[in-house]
Design a protein that fits this description.
The complex is a heterodimer of chains A (about 450) and B (about 525). Chain A is mostly beta strands and about 450 residues long. Chain A has eight helices and 22 strands. In chain A, the strands form two sheets. Chain A has a 20-stranded antiparallel sheet that branches. Chain A has a two-stranded antiparallel sheet with strand order 3-4. With about 525 residues, chain B is mainly β. Chain B is elongated, with a radius of gyration of 45 Å. The chains are: A mainly beta (about 450), B mainly beta (about 525). β4 of chain A pairs parallel with β1 of chain B, so a sheet runs across the interface.
């Protein structure tokens, strides 16, 4: 278990600092930005073709916590050091809590229109963290088990899925008629590393009268990563890691838009329906339905023993305890399902330059439904400058005021979007923060004549 | 111009990104985590012990007896032994002088030889006029002195038909050279170990063994001066035996004063105790083939210098039967109980020891009969006290001390000790544990005010008095503040338990081997750790 925690820390260290994701809210209704197509493959940019500045077309950093905020977990001392605020942690943790962190960088990206179609491609590296943890687990760790006398503390729905993968996406959208657009993307995925708690059932019951401790554990943890990471010997990302062609998977994105009239439009998309099969550097840890009750030590057993004999007997008891909870190690490949997302959105056009929008997003992680809602106001300031403001409810955070801006200075498009402005500057004080920016090169419709295909 | 503006846009974006990244690192500076006050409260079981009477017996230094129905009894026993037989019945050194005449035929010429057979009865006398039938000799010396004036070379053949070793009759030859006619003495000595001698008692009160002395004379050149003087002096000395049989008469010998300790009342005070059926057994183990009488010279109990005599209709003399075979003990046992003695009163007295001393008398009737004994024959007296745990007691207070130390953990704010007890015994008890330093200075008591009270199980009807299901009870003790400080300073713990049988000591109970006390101790620990 210690090893698994080490691995988790390593993954967080490696990828925790460079965040990027195509799964944001405000951007969804900021359709002049080509990367809105990442959120709904039916979105068709209003340019002839475009491509991104390599590694800069789409950079996303986003994280969220539905439980304790960083600033609630730590208080700053006068000497600038941090103090762990155990009371703050306990008072803010909820029954079920999630931590998400999504990082993505688009290395290459391009798209073009051809007749009523729009084709796109992209190559991205994505790191996706999904962590669920129970409030009781935190309370148990912080305040001990005395508060749970006579009760069972379940670690459910504790869960961890951390994945680094490379995505080759090929998309097509069809401007079906004046009302409907349809789009789809097929993605070839190549897993780089993963840590997945397929099963993580654990509970602790403290018996009321004698404080007997009963634990039940059922664990199945899959890992795929260089052995040195697993052993805690440091992280060395080399070309063998970055350019491995195995651990293949596939996923699809599907989307549609519907224009009811000149004012109202609706859209929906389902993203990341797929899997990755991790077939290298794998190691699996399991502990199958172990139930054990500790009732205390039989003091009579030690009667008449010398100090050395007592020490030896205590060691034997400790060893048998360790053996009982021994984690079995196996080596086999495994599949993980991608975390699918569903977007449902609508826009209402106030005027030629103003649009109100609403986005409802949901995802299900380990049987836990995680919904979020965003409302937005978009205004086209100039032909080449648009701004958006948004209000998002996510991760039990109700004060997420977001904003976005794009500026086209032909042939360059620069954009910067966030769902929570406060989070950009004081991310430790919010439940959710993200930032998404990029630089595209575009060619407007009609200016360049035919599309590339027409050539 | 267009390209410059585009590059400027990109650079602006990159700069913003870097600034934000730097800002994030500062915001999430986990390397600056310096600590925090972790204050959990942890509950866990510590001790789970089911102490049955069987366990108590197993670990007890006392001797216990379990009756078929499971009733238990405490046993105290002590043996005392007499001296070995060979230091009681001894055969004294003794000698016999016999004077004879040897006459040679007148017609003898040099080179002739002649012999003369002398028949002698050797006598062995014991120190107590014993009649000895057989004597298997362990050691001893048979010494002969022949004094004669024979002027010819001669020899003496000694034959004792009833003295044999491994079935071979005693036969020895002693040469007596001529001394020219003057009176001279020749000595000879023979070890008697492993010879068996059989004696006859022709006069009814003596021990005789027939001996033949064959004197062979080789006639020489000297004259025939018959008759010649021929004196025989025979003696036995340092005679010891492996076994001996016959009749040994009356001997009196003591068994030294012996003390039987009763630890039941050590380290304890008892307001009242009433044992329903105590017994005191006297076992006499006798390997003498002789009937004995044991006279109890001293027989009393003692507590703190105060004595109380044992009174019984069986006292003061106990007839002890003889051993039926050599090398075996025969046992004669006598029991003093509430029907024939004052034993109940004796144990109300809470004695700490029993003292006894005896005198043994052999053949007490004076009637002559066949006796035997070995050199190792002896008499053991074993006093055995049997105390069935059947009775009642009030305020039986037991106190003991044990070393105890625990390294102080400054993080501990308070500890709740939770005792869950299930008592199958028909005894109620008030238990107190004192925390003391290494000099036995009491620092504190574990339980506040009054001791933890152990509720007795309900006692069933006579004659079994078995208890029903145990009654569970919980006692919680909180250690904090000064009490916790004293706990860390503790070097010894002193237990004090005040026991009474059910109904304030008025209920008669029995203690069976399946009785138990189930002790579960759990702790709730309030801990503060500065990380």
């Amino acid at each position: 278990m210690k090893r698994i925690i080490t691995i988790a820390i390593i993954l967080a260290t490696v990828f925790g600092g460079k965040l990027s994701a195509q799964f944001d809210h405000t951007l969804y209704n900021m359709t002049p930005v080509f990367q809105s197509n990442l959120l709904n493959p039916a979105f068709i940019p209003d340019v002839q073709y475009h491509f991104g500045v390599p590694a800069l077309s789409s950079v996303y950093a986003g994280f969220g916590t539905s439980g304790v905020k960083y600033s609630q977990a730590f208080t700053r001392r006068a000497d600038d050091s941090l103090n762990i605020d155990f009371n703050g942690i306990v008072s803010h943790v909820k029954a079920k809590n999630a931590i998400i962190q999504r990082d993505a960088v688009q290395w290459l990206n391009g798209g073009m229109r051809w007749k009523d179609y729009y084709f796109s491609f992209s190559v991205s590296d994505i790191v996706d963290w999904n962590v669920l943890y129970s409030g009781d687990m935190v309370k148990l760790a912080v305040n001990g088990n005395a508060q749970f006398i006579g009760k069972t503390v379940s670690f459910a729905p504790s869960y961890l899925k951390a994945t680094h993968y490379r995505e080759y996406a090929f998309g097509a959208a069809w401007d079906f008629d004046s009302q409907w657009n349809f789009g789809a993307k097929v993605k070839m995925l190549f897993g780089k590393s993963n840590l997945h708690t397929k099963t993580l059932d654990a509970s602790l019951h403290t018996e009321e009268n004698n404080y007997y401790l009963t634990t039940e554990t059922n664990i199945m943890i899959n890992t795929s990563m260089p052995a040195s990471w697993r052993e805690g010997d440091g992280v060395n990302i080399n070309s063998a890691y970055l350019f491995y062609g195995g651990s293949f998977g596939m996923s699809v994105d599907l989307g549609a838009t519907y224009k009811l009239n000149d004012e109202l439009a609706f859209s929906a998309s389902v993203l990341d329906l797929g899997y990755i099969k991790f077939d290298r550097n794998f190691k699996n840890f399991s502990n199958n339905n172990v139930k054990w009750t500790f009732e205390g030590i039989d003091a009579l057993e030690f009667d008449g023993m010398t100090d050395d004999e007592i020490d030896q007997r205590l060691k034997e008891i400790g060893d048998s305890l360790k053996k009982k909870f021994e984690i079995e190690e196996t080596w086999h490949s495994y599949n993980i399902m991608m975390t699918a997302k569903i977007y449902l959105a609508g826009t209402y056009k106030l005027s030629d330059i103003e649009t109100l929008g609403a986005v409802f997003r949901s995802e299900i992680i380990n049987k836990t439904w995680r919904p979020s809602l965003s409302l937005s106001y978009y205004r086209q300031i100039f032909d080449n400058l648009g701004v958006i403001g948004s209000y998002t409810i996510i991760n039990r955070g109700y004060f997420n005021i977001g904003a976005g801006i794009y500026y086209n200075y032909k042939p360059v498009q620069v954009y910067l979007v966030t769902d929570n402005l406060v989070g950009v500057f004081i991310p430790d004080a919010v439940h959710y923060a993200n930032i998404h920016f990029g630089v595209n090169i575009y060619f407007p419709k009609g200016r360049s004549g035919n599309t590339l295909i027409d050539f | 111009m267009i390209r410059n503006k585009s590059i400027l846009l990109i650079l602006t974006l990159l700069s913003a990104s870097l600034i934000l990244n730097s800002c994030y690192k500062k915001r999430f500076s986990t390397d600056k985590i310096a600590g925090g006050d972790w204050n959990p409260e942890i509950a866990a079981p510590v001790i789970k012990s089911k102490m049955t009477m069987k366990d108590i017996i197993k670990n007890s230094s006392e001797e216990w007896k379990e009756y078929p129905d499971g009733l238990l009894s405490l046993i105290y026993r002590q043996k005392a032994a007499s001296s070995f037989a060979d230091s009681i019945v001894k055969i004294p050194d003794q000698s016999i002088d016999t004077s004879l005449q040897v006459s040679l035929p007148p017609s003898m010429i040099p080179g002739d030889s002649t012999s003369q057979l002398l028949n002698v009865y050797g006598k062995l006398k014991g120190s107590n006029n014993e009649l000895i039938d057989t004597l298997f000799i362990k050691s001893g010396s048979f010494d002969l002195e022949f004094t004669t004036n024979l002027n010819h070379d001669a020899s003496v053949q000694i034959i004792i038909p009833d003295l044999a070793k491994y079935g071979v009759t005693f036969y020895q030859v002693v040469k007596i050279p001529s001394a020219g006619g003057s009176l001279h003495t020749v000595k000879a000595s023979f070890p008697l170990n492993l010879y068996t001698a059989m004696f006859k008692h022709p006069n009814g009160n003596d021990n005789q063994i027939q001996q033949f002395f064959k004197v062979v004379v080789n006639f020489g050149n000297a004259a025939n001066n018959s008759p010649y003087v021929f004196k025989i002096k025979q003696s036995v000395s340092n005679l010891t035996y492996y076994d001996v049989s016959g009749y040994f008469g009356e001997y009196n010998f003591p068994i030294e004063q012996t003390t039987l300790g009763i630890s039941l009342f050590d380290n304890s005070t008892v307001e009242e105790i009433f044992l329903e059926d105590p017994r005191l057994h006297l076992h006499f183990y006798n390997s003498f083939g002789i009937p004995l009488n044991v006279h109890m010279d001293k027989f009393y109990v003692e507590r703190d210098g105060v004595t109380k005599d044992v009174i019984s209709t069986l006292l003061p003399d106990f007839p002890v039967t003889p051993a039926s075979q050599m090398y075996l003990f025969d046992t004669s046992s006598f029991t003093l109980d509430k029907g024939n003695s004052n034993i109940i009163d004796l144990f109300k007295f809470q004695p700490k020891k029993v003292i006894f001393a005896e005198t043994i008398k052999t053949n007490p009737s004076g009637v002559q009969q066949h006796n035997f004994m070995m050199d190792t024959s002896k008499v053991y007296v074993e006093a055995e006290i049997e105390l069935p745990l059947y009775g009642r007691t009030l305020n039986f207070t037991v106190e003991d001390t044990a070393l105890f130390s625990m390294e102080e953990d400054k993080g501990v704010i308070s500890v709740d000790l939770r005792f869950n007890l299930a008592n199958k015994f028909p005894s109620e008890a008030g238990v107190q544990i004192y925390l003391a330093d290494t000099n036995n200075v009491i620092l504190d008591s574990l339980f506040d005010k009054k001791a933890m009270v152990l509720v007795p199980a309900v006692v069933g009807p006579a004659p079994d008095y078995r208890t029903s299901d145990p009654i569970n009870q919980t006692t919680v003790v909180t250690l904090k503040g000064d009490k916790l400080k004293n706990f860390w300073k503790t070097g010894k713990i002193i237990y004090k338990a005040n026991l009474s049988t059910a109904e304030q000591g008025q209920k008669v109970v029995k203690i069976y081997s399946d009785y138990y006390i189930d002790i579960r101790m759990a702790v709730k620990l309030n801990y503060l750790k500065e990380l």
